[in-house]
TrEMBL record:
<dbReference type="InterPro" id="IPR002591">
    <property type="entry name" value="Phosphodiest/P_Trfase"/>
</dbReference>
<dbReference type="GO" id="GO:0016787">
    <property type="term" value="F:hydrolase activity"/>
</dbReference>
<feature type="signal peptide">
    <location>
        <begin position="1"/>
        <end position="19"/>
    </location>
</feature>
<dbReference type="Pfam" id="PF01663">
    <property type="entry name" value="Phosphodiest"/>
</dbReference>
<protein>
    <submittedName>
        <fullName>Type I phosphodiesterase/nucleotide pyrophosphatase</fullName>
    </submittedName>
</protein>
<keyword id="KW-0732">Signal</keyword>
<dbReference type="InterPro" id="IPR017850">
    <property type="entry name" value="Alkaline_phosphatase_core_sf"/>
</dbReference>
Amino acid sequence: MKNRLLFLALFFIAFQINAANKAKHVVLIGCDGFGGYAFEKANIPNIKKLAQNGSMTLEMRTVLPSSSAVNWASILMGAGPTFHGYTEWGSKTPEIPSVTTSKYGKFPSIFTILREQKPNSKTALVYSWEGIEYLVEKDIINIVVPTKSNENLSADTAASIIIREKPDFIFIHFDEPDHVGHSIGHDTPEYYSTLEIVDQRVGKIIDSVNEAGIADETVIILLADHGGIDKGHGGKTLQEVQVPFIISGAGIKKNHKITDTAIVYDTAATIAKILGMKQPQAWRGIPLQDVFLK
């Protein structure tokens, strides 16, 4: 009887460990300027299906200012601007000296800890807004593809990389719907039409994960850096500072509304947990425990 109980206990522990380590790949999709307010109004079947198959909040908060570089840095670096030092829409270098830097010369990002803790990991970056390149250590990323605002090329390239390379971590940055938000206006018919096109590109990324045969061991995260109001952003309205955060895949609750409070720099901490890594002391993000299956 004792031996049987011991066997069952060991089996349960092994099952728990196996479940925790099931995810081997993370796909991070960034949609610039996608406000949380827009989710319900938009005709975005691929993104909504991703949310239905996973966990979601429409109330993740940005850091201030609610602008691009400062928030993409926070998303990737697990901390806010007074720590990493990028404080403006188009920051190329820290306006405030970073509180710490890695041996690669920047505040540690998710790319940093992957290279340090899993040196054989395969990483990729595809981005359409050139401002992203100043926030990462390109030399330590295996595949780096700037697409110079060609969003279809971003989707096609990222899909090809996922199918061919099966990276441990890939970050795909789309510059829409923010561009149309600035030129025509956020929360306009044109903005929602652009979101439909963004959704088609996201669908291509999701399809590539399935085609690569890694869907059962992949987590897909979709989020934004800020929302917008009228033709701008950077302010303190909820329309600007609340963004969607969707997470779906291996080990993630399905059809679940996230009740934990969340800020964009929790993203890096959550990815670190998924991939079994220890986060740096300087990070201030907290893994979103509410999304994980118990």
